[in-house]
Amino acid sequence: MVLEKIKKENDIKNLSPEEYPRLAAEIREFLVQSLSRTGGHLASNLGVVELTMALHCSFDLPKDKIIWDVGHQSYTHKILTGRKDGFANLRKLGGMSGFPKRTESPCDVYDTGHSTTSISAGLGYVAARELNGEDYYVVSVIGDGAFTGGMAFEAMNNAAELKTNFIMVLNDNNMSISENVGGISTYLGSIRTAEAYTGLKMGVTNTLNRVPVIGEKTVDALRKTKRSIKQLMIPGMFFEDIGLTYLGPIDGHNTKQMIKAFQEAKRLKAPVVVHVITEKGRGYLPAVRHPARFHGTTPFEIPTGLPAKRTGKANYTDIFSTVMRKFGDRYPNVVAITAAMPDGTGLKRFRNMFPDRFFDVGIAEQHAVTYAAGLALGGLIPVVAIYSSFLQRAVDQIMEDVCLQNLHVIFAIDRAGLVGSDGETHQGAFDLSYLSMMPNMTIMAPKNIWELSDMMKFAVAHDGPIAIRYPRGEAWDHMKELRAPIELGKAEILQKGSKVALLAVGKMVEIAASVTRELEEKYGVKATLVNMRFVKPMDHELLIQLAEEHELLVTLEDNVKQGGFGQQAANYLYEHEKYPHMIQVAIPDCFVEHGSVEQLYSKLGMDADSVVEKIVEKCVLEPLVNEE
After folding, report:
1. Residue 363: exposed, middle, or buried by beta-carbon count in 10 A (0-12, 13-18, 19+)?
2. Contacts of 583 (CB under 8 A, 6+ apart)
3. How is the chain split among helix, strand and coil, in percent rounded to 5?
4. pLDDT for position 144
């Protein structure tokens, strides 16, 4: 096997060009086999195999710096830098990350996970290189989906002023997670189809390079005038117009052709965009047909591509999807917004039924929020569905454009709390903290599937900014009989007890319920169980009452402790001179690594057993005597 010859970085340079196609095929076979067992980002990685090979053939790692935008497409990069064996524990607790990690390898030069960052980071590396008088190449690899994000344009605008080499590789597969939308996608589509120019350029360049002495000089002269030629052949030439040299489009599955393009790019003392065309999911038919489904996949059956484990139970995204579909019929003024993730956020059904009221703005969370503000001012009720981790990117817009104007915008925050295997960059651990600081904001979290539906109804009738945050994974389907009407700022008492009161937010109600059962069964303590429902406005009246009636209050949230529900509750009690014993169960002051959600809860001391242990220690409880 050719792949067995790759033990460390730069080993690929020892291969002959004739071995490249076999290596690409073996890498794809390995990725499909491996990810069918572990899950992971499949489609994006299958699409960049030859591109990654060409980069590793053209640059010297780790001296040269390759920065992967988002980073979920770095699996081939990991293989070519000697980490093939790490795929057995990919995205598992203590195992290899699914994203670039500087702690894993010196060949990973930037920890990524969010989109549109690579050009800015690369530009920083370039500036540092020049100031330090060092000599290395910087390559930022960015997808066409990320080009819908404003940060990429800010960085390109800055890069255009450079008088030194900086290489930006545009990996164009006409996809972000779902199919791309908008003007940039249309523009790139026009370039993809400009075969007349591409064929002319490659043919002329290759022919002239074979002419002794004068050939290379002629190519250099043509390069200086190519901008005017491109203007005739390809309308717009956006990149050239703002001051970037453009090379392409190039077949992203032709390793030899890309190596030639990278060699040409390395010679330029200027910022250069190398535009490569790839196919997402290439080499595995189910991923080609369903690239969005195979963007991030669970373990699957290779022949069919179907999930290996199917429970049939609905998740919170499914419930949200059903609710939005019903709201489309019921409320003609409800509209939906997503940032390039109609499938992931559950808005696909709404889009199919109400296309005129559905807006996919691309990977542009900041724009999505301000756009929603405009929709609200125009008399509509916008529902902005975004993952918690990605909504962080629009904190200023939520604050200034929605909350400041007190606009009726509904934020449906998916993947709140710990999400597991995607690790630090994707954990939704901060939303309660950053949303709570905003005046006019209302924050809710459902305990189960029925409460999510009820909260969405409440949000539509509400007047002002309102956020509903819910976790990834199977929706809890217990306590259906406990479904008290939702009132603004009022919690729900699920069980009345004494001595210990558990105040839980959202998903943590499920854990708190397990804690109450264990306390009663093992220690004879019947605890009070409260579903807080609202983090803001908080049920302060009940909070004071619970503090007066119980020895110990336990707050439970799947959010960081700093600025979260527990700290807010403790501060309020302190300000009102109530000093009960308290335990705050929350995510500590750290970025949480990848691993299963269950493992992470246990490691952080947030699972039911850990909470019981803390309560027993705090209250000095003795187990019941088992009389047999």
Report:
1. buried
2. 552, 553, 554, 555, 611, 614, 615, 618
3. 45, 15, 40
4. 87
| Beta bridge pairs of residue 335 | 382
> Is position 533 annotated as part of the catalytic site?
no
Burial label for 90, CB within 10 Å (0-12, 13-18, 19+), is buried
Instruction: Give me 428's structure tokens.
Output: 């939704």
pLDDT of residue 481: 85
User: Which of these is catalytic: 83, 293, 393, 507?
Assistant: 393
Average pLDDT, the chain: 90
- Residue identified by tokens 């400009």 is 194
Percentage of the chain surpassing pLDDT 90?
Answer: 78
The answer to whether residues 208 and 122 touch, using CB atoms and an 8 Å cutoff, is: no
Helix H or strand E segment including 374: helix 365-377
Confirm if 230 and 246 have CB atoms less than 8 A apart.
yes
- Which residue is catalytic, options 365, 451, 492, 518? 365
Termini Cα distance of the chain: 65
84, 230, 280, 282: the catalytic one is 280
Q: How confident is the model at residue 200 (pLDDT cuts 50, 70, 90)?
A: very low
Is the pLDDT confidence value at 257 over 50?
yes
Q: What is the mean pLDDT of residues 203-210?
A: 57
Cis? peptide before 62, omega within 30° of 0: yes
What would the mean pLDDT of 40-63 be, rounded to a whole number?
96
Does the pLDDT at position 223 exceed 60?
Answer: no
CB 424 within 8 A of CB 113: yes
SS3 for 97-133, per residue? CCCCCCCCCCCCCCCCCCCCCHHHHHHHHHHHHHHHC
**Rounded-to-integer distance, Cα 166 and Cα 244, Å:** 10
Range of weakest confidence among 398-402, 430-434, 471-475, 537-541: 471-475
User: Minimal CA–CA distance to 333: which of 460, 221, 473?
Assistant: 460
**Nearest alpha carbon to residue 136 among 49, 217, 63:** 63
Specify the higher pLDDT residue, 323 or 186. 323
Going by the DSSP 8-state scheme, the letter that residue 250 receives in this structure is E
Instruction: Compute the C-alpha angle 316/321/325, nearest 5°.
Output: 150
* pTM of the entire predicted model: 0.88
DSSP 458-501: HHHH--S-EEEE--SSBPP---TT--PPP-TT--EEEE--SEEE
- Hey, which residues does 492 pair with through a beta bridge? 531
* Buried residues in 467-476 as b, exposed as e (16+ CB within 10 A): bbbbbbbebb
Q: Which amino acid is at 345?
A: T
Residues 209/220, Cβ–Cβ less than 8 Å:
no
Residues forming a β-bridge with 407 = none
Query: Does residue 280 have an active-site annotation?
Result: yes
Angstrom CA distances, 155 to 121, 140, 152, stand at 9, 11, 5
Find tokens 């690594």 and name the residue: 593
Backbone conformation region of residue 415, classed left if phi is above 0, alpha if psi is from -120 to 50, else beta: left
Q: Rounded to an integer, what distance in angstroms lies between the CA atom of residue 179 and that of residue 287?
A: 14
- Cα 481 to chain centroid, rounded: 35
Distance CA 456, CA 485 (A): 13
